[in-house]
Fold each of these.
Amino acid sequence: MEFESILLPGVEDKRPVIIAGPCSAETEEQVLKTAVELAGKGVKIYRAGVWKPRTKPGGFEGAGTPALKWLQQVRRETGMYVSTEVATEKHVYESLKYNMDMLWIGARTTANPFAVQEIADTLKGVDIPVLIKNPVNPDLELWIGAIERLYNAGLTKIGVIHRGFSTNDKSVYRNMPHWHIPIELKRRFPDLPIICDPSHIGGKRSMIKKISQQAMDLNYYGLIIESHCNPDEAWSDSAQQITPGTLADILNELVIRDKVQ
Ligand code: PEP
Ligand code: MN
């Protein structure tokens, strides 16, 4: 497989490429306020979940299509690129209709070949970067299968997100990193950009910096970090979200060593 760069025009090709924004788009005010603060810290690619795959029913399941308009407003007002998660054909249509710049496939969706195939079929002929999160279960072949489904549909601007793997065992991690799995993926596909999601691996604010540094030491290309203007009040993943100010501090403290293979 030959991949094209996932980078959008004007985003510097320099490690770490940063994607940041709230777990969920909650309200227009929260989306805009967080975006303005992140843009002020130099973030160029904004993330916000519009359809939220919650483990159990009863939680906030996303603001849906209206939130895509808030993301369009983010682009207009801050100049940032905007990205969201897609899990179904409808999500893809709506995201393209509202001009998302980048899409990602969530961990629960990557574990479902029917859903990945549906997304791939819907994206046929569309020129958009797509990031594929690892499946919730530690199954490298399933992750590669999802990459192949998109690639076979003609998409070449593909990247992957390492967000850790579910566990029932008590652990300091929310999702076990199992670093050997993404490392093996990188060994097999050296041109595939790999982005670390320390927010979902760590599950708490205090772990973001250490996991981000580990990813940089392992030569990862980028980081996707959940950031919210008021993390304590977030409607999802509150414990792991950090303010744009904290994000900037963490990024400033990261040590980026030159590539040593
Ligand atoms: C998210 O990015 O907010 C999310 C739902 O992540 P994951 O698919 O990794 O659980
Ligand atoms: Mn989240």
Amino acid sequence: MNSIERDVVIVGAGASGLTAATELTKAGLSVAVLEARDRVGGRLWTDDIDGATLEIGGQWVSPDQDALIGTLEELGLETYSRYREGINIYLGENGARRTFEGEIFPVAPATEQEIVGLIERLDALVAEIDPDRPWEHPQAKELDEISFRRWLETQTDDEEARLNIGMFIAGAMLTKPAHAFSALQALLMAASAGSFSNLVDADFILDKRVKGGLQQVPLLLAERLGDDVHLNSPVRTLRWDAEGTGSGVTAITDDLQVHARFAILAVPPVLISRISYEPPLPRRQQQLHQHLSMGFVIKVHAVYETPFWRDHGYSGTAFSPYELVHEAYDNSYHGDPRGTLVGFVSDESADDVFRLSPEERKARILESLSHYYGVQALSPVVYYESDWGSEEWTRGAYAASFDMGGLARYGADLRTPVGPIHFSCSDMAGKGYQHVDGAIRVGRETAAAIVAALQPAGR
Ligand code: FDA
């Protein structure tokens, strides 16, 4: 077993851990980043699949994400806009096909009125929520005791309005059924993007992509850190100083141990309890990590010889709360003349299709795409399903959220350091929650907290 000494050991080479490591080195501290996988990036992964460049994980950048945009600029990375010219498609109940422009779906006027009213009410509530402290809202506890689905039922009897508004947070963001998370958790999701209206606006939330892929962010950060990033190094055990003696922390992998003054656990919160702690973490942390779980979504990539939908005047943007693929977009890669559609199959629908064989699942998913785009959608030249649910070091997608009541009860302690152990991840962010922007934001804040903690010691 090799042994090294560093100021800070960082567990996890995702966007958050690598940002923290970068900031710490800028402050003159020494770091070691221990990464379980054979690559950096975590939930950012740009890969070549059968000749097509695909974003298997995160990809979109929205204009409010100034932490991510700042990092892209610093790294010299360029962005391009998602293709969005033309008309969008909405499938109503029983497959009723309608086209639309703008954000509001082409539903019956009474349903439209309900949707607009719900958006206004949600925007008003979201404006009262501080995404960094949603538990401080005066009604936080009540809002955390009611599921988002039930809350919507208290607001309107219109099922199609409820399904559509529910879809924006449930299927499209937290990737859990709307009965499985609270209204407070839904409000945090919207507050983290600035407003509920922003989440509803695909042109805002899914605005830009990065030339060469978003994984370049972690790749370039890791390149600068050089030998301080250790791949294939899952941390199994963390020994830490619970008595405050100043003895720090030791992170132990299968063949390396790093002794440091501080540790940053930059892993999804659901994975924190997969590490053994000596001594055990305090009871509060042992409890709170059990009240978070990952959402679950399949990101489906279908590449075609041409972006055929554009010839028919379609933008590629398509929605339906009744379809297996509840949302889909033109996701053609910069510089590739072929056309790519990306679609999403979320939570219980994802459970259902994972009971099928791969061939049957593919057929069901392509059939759903064909309901939007016609029979040409049945024959992609490249087809790929991002399945993060089977990834040992992620275990779901997009990110983690609290179960009912968990956010008000435990949220305030999620990032509270325990002795020399700090926590950093997009799933713990306020602004940018569940997004790369949040990962970077929290990474910077965690590094700053450690630098500040070291200052009195004369560094
Ligand atoms: P992340 O999970 O990336 O990193 C944690 C790292 O810790 C991993 O590399 C893991 O291997 C490692 N690790 C875990 N346990 C360990 C152990 N014991 N020892 C050592 N290492 C360990 N966001 C966005 O902004 N725009 C988007 O379009 C999307 N879309 C999207 C699609 C899909 C399919 C996914 C899965 C995710 C997104 N996201 C997204 C979310 C975004 O990708 C995500 O929020 C961030 O990349 C998370 O970065 P973190 O560094 O916080 O965690």
